[in-house]
Amino acid sequence: MPPLPSVTDVQTYLGITSDATLLAERLAAAISMAERDTGRTFSSSSNTTRRYSTNNETLLFIDDRPLVDASRTVTWMGTTMTENVSNPQLGTVWFLPDRRDPNITTSVQLRLFDTAGTWYKADPQWFDKNLDWRRFGSSYPLDLVITGIIGHPFPSQDVVSNIIVATAYLYWRAKSGATGTAYNLQSEPVSLDEMPPEYQAFVARWRIRTAVEAVG
What we know:
The protein is an alpha+beta fold. It folds into 2 domains: 7-42 and 155-207, no CATH class; 45-150, no CATH class. The protein contains 4 helices and 11 strands. The strands form 3 sheets. Strands 4-3-8-1-11 form a 5-stranded antiparallel β-sheet, with no helix packed on it. A 4-stranded mixed β-sheet has the order 2-7-6-5, with no helix packed on it. A two-stranded antiparallel sheet has the order 9-10. α1 crosses α2 and α2 crosses α3. The protein is elongated, with a radius of gyration of 22 Å.
C-alpha cells in the first residue's frame, strides 16, 4: 500500500508539472482537513505518546495506530500491559482491527467483558492498589498511556486517492479566484461550491470519534 500522496502524485492527477509550491501547501491543508473531517490520524510518526481517560470503560476509541507495532508500550493505571495474551492476570490489552483497514487499529479493549463487576482483576496489581474498593465505576483521569507509532504508515488506497481529490479541489479553489468554477483536462467545468462527492463519501466512511485527553 502507498504512503500518503506527494506533490508529484497530485501533479500527475491534475496533468500538470507546475505550481509545486502551491500544491505542497494545498496538500498539507488537505491532509489536515481529512483528519479533522474524519477524526482520524493519517499522518504517521513514531515514538508518539497519547494519554486517555478510560472512564472505567472496557472498550475505548483511540487515535489511529498500526494494528501491530513492536515498538509500542501500554501502561494502564501505572501497570505495563501485555498485548493479546489470553491470561488477563498478566495485564492484557487487545488492539482491535479497524473495519475500514484491518492493518490499523482505532480501539483498544482493556479487559475481558465482565458482567460480574470484577473488572479491576484485569490489573495484576489490583490488590496492592486497593482497586476492589474502587470497583463501583470510578477511574483515574489519563489512566491509559500508549507510546509508539501513530497514524497510517501504509495508508489504504481509499485514503490516498481522496486526499489527492481534496488537494485538487483546494488547488482549483486557489487558482479560480472569485469565479467559483474550475475546468478539468477535458475542459469540463468543475463546481467549487462544495467538496467533491467522492470526498464527502470518504468522510462518511472513515469518520470516527476518538477520546484523546492529552499529548505527551
